[in-house]
Write a structure and sequence with these properties.
Low-confidence stretches: none
Order of helices and strands: HHH
CATH class: Mainly Alpha
Number of domains: 1
Strand content: under 5%
CATH superfamily: Ribosomal protein S20
Shape: elongated
Radius of gyration: 14 Å
Number of strands: 0
Length: 77
């Protein structure tokens, strides 16, 4: 398998995981579960940092997403 195909598969799985973590966080926020949302936020922030480290997404894009997610939790409290 070509290197580009391997990287494409890895990138797709990482991006899919990021979206899943975001959805889990949004569901916790919608339910009003602050503790669960805090845990989901930590998981999502860590995953974004790892995606940047692996070159899957740009650093600025990750920082923007992390900022927006954090603000959503702050407005809930």
């Amino acid at each position: 398998m070509r290197n580009s195909a391997v990287k494409q598969l890895r990138n797709r799985s990482v991006k899919s995981r990021l979206k899943s973590l975001e959805k889990r966080y949004a569901a916790a926020l919608k339910a009003g579960k602050k503790d669960e949302a805090g845990t989901a936020l930590r998981d999502a922030l860590s995953a974004f940092d790892k995606a940047v480290k692996g070159g899957v997404i740009h650093r600025s894009a990750a920082n923007r997403k992390k900022s927006r997610l954090t603000v959503r939790l702050a407005t809930l409290k």
